[in-house]
Amino acid sequence: MSLSTQAKEKLARFLEEEKIICRGDKIIAACSGGADSVALIYLLGQMRFDLKLSLLVVHIDHQTRPEANEAEAELVKEICRRLNIALVIRKIKPEPGPGFENRARDMRFAEFEKILRIYNFNKLALGHHKNDQAETVLMNLMRDSGIGGIGG
Questions:
Q1: Is 90 helix (H, G, I), strand (E, B) or coil?
Q2: CA 151/CA 141 separation, integer angstroms
Q3: What would the pLDDT profile of 131-147 be if each residue is shown by its tens digit?
Q4: CB-based contacts of 32, cutoff 8 Å, min separation 6
Q5: How sure is the predictor about 150, in pLDDT bands with cuts at 50, 70 and 90?
Q6: Coil, strand or helix: which one is 34?
Q7: Is residue 31 within 8 Å of 43, Cβ to Cβ?
Q8: Three-state SS for 54?
Q9: Interatomic CA distance for residues 83 and 144, integer angstroms
Q10: 99 with 92: CB under 8 angstroms?
């Protein structure tokens, strides 16, 4: 059994046992283009068939680094094309200065909420956050660390 199949099965079991994801859920997966969120959409993309999930990827462009932002959006587009997952790209423009990260996060989550309502989805999956804990959790799950390893 391949490592990705093991990771998918282990994650699916955990998510179902903990009632984080249930059969038939409609999930928006945020994808920045970073390793954590790409791993998340890859795994959710694999699990969607077994769990009968509806999956929509959302990429938020903060318009802070034009060339890099465009490259990230193109990467996410290509990944979604290869995985045959629908993609929505939204642009936000937080004001620069002190508190930028908080304003950007608030604007991102406002967009996620709008998209949840517009498409009638019921869950939001995030594969990245400030301390990269999601990557640690996924690595711990793949290492058979048990419930104690769920924390990052």
A1: strand
A2: 10
A3: 555 545 555 555 555 55
A4: 59, 60, 72, 76, 128
A5: very low
A6: coil
A7: no
A8: strand
A9: 27
A10: no
- Over residues 82-134, the pLDDT tens digits come to 999 999 999 999 888 888 888 988 999 999 999 999 999 999 998 854 455 55
Q: Are 69 and 63 in contact (CB under 8 A)?
A: yes
Cα separation, 96 vs 111, in Å, equals 19
Strand locations in the chain (E): 26-30, 54-61, 86-91, 123-126
Question: Is 122 in a helix, a strand, or coil?
Answer: coil
CA distance 18 to 85: 25
φ/ψ of 133, rounded to 5, equals -65, -30
Number of other residues whose CB lies within 10 A of the CB of residue 58: 23
Q: Higher pLDDT residue, 59 or 13?
A: 59
